[in-house]
Design brief:
Layout: H1 2-15, H2 18-30, H3 35-55, H4 61-81, E1 91-97, H5 105-116, E2 119-123, H6 130-140, E3 144-148, H7 155-167, E4 175-179, H8 185-191, E5 195-197, H9 200-210
Parallel strand pairs: 1-2, 1-3, 3-4, 4-5
Helix pairs in contact: 1-2, 1-3, 1-4, 2-4, 3-4, 4-5, 5-9, 6-7
């Protein structure tokens, strides 16, 4: 039964079918499938395929947007079903998509996995100004500031976050974690970020390492 639902979840994302994605998320949870298994084996598998198809020119922007919308709605349902850790808090992390980038599908997945791994998460959304990253991190008492971008044109904002933290004299207060499709380890090293996350699971792993 689980494999059938995983397949349905994957197909819903590939087709960009919001209603099907929502129905499948609800059905999976109602039948007792672990929310994280449903996310990883079904929905994330689908969105990864969408990303591959888009990168190779076999899927175009309108389809990508539809798939992202389906993924976002399914993730909302799964997030609500994921227990916030096992009673202990691994750390406090602020996450957001940088200013100029309205994509947040990758970040949404990361938020779900962070919560499942016991992190206290503050999601400041997409198209977030630099000052919001800093102001909200201060208010929240974050241990880690995580920034994401899907666009090469907005990668520079991640560098600017590092610079503004230094200007404010609070860079050493936080660990910084960067991610997103165009982001690489080389970029993270170049801008002085503490860690680079290749994907959602790697983000959780790197965040835990930063707090050790």
């Amino acid at each position: 039964m689980s494999e059938i639902i995983y397949q349905e979840a994957m197909e819903a994302i590939l087709k960009g079918d919001v209603d099907k994605a929502v129905d499948t998320a609800k059905k999976g949870i109602d039948t007792g499938i672990d929310p994280l298994d449903l996310m990883n084996n079904g929905f994330i598998s689908g969105i990864n395929q969408v990303g591959d198809l888009f990168e190779t020119g076999r899927l175009f922007l309108p389809q990508l947007v539809m798939s992202a919308s389906a993924m976002e709605k399914a993730t909302e349902i799964i997030n609500a079903a994921i227990p916030d850790g096992k009673g202990t808090v691994s750390g406090k992390i602020l996450v957001g998509t940088v200013e100029g980038d309205v994509h947040d599908i990758g970040k949404t997945i990361v938020v779900a996995l962070f919560k499942a791994n016991g992190f206290d998460v503050l999601d400041i959304g997409r198209d977030a100004p630099i000052e919001r990253f800093i102001d909200e991190a201060e208010k929240f008492g974050a241990d880690i500031i995580g920034s994401s971008t899907l666009l090469t044109t907005t990668m520079a904002v991640q560098k600017q976050i590092e610079e503004e933290l230094k200007k404010a004299g609070i860079r050493d207060k936080y660990k910084t974690l960067v991610g997103g499709a165009p982001v690489t380890q080389r970029w993270a090293d170049r801008i002085g970020a503490d860690a680079y996350a290749q994907d959602a699971s790697d983000g959780v792993r790197k965040a835990k390492e930063l707090l050790m």
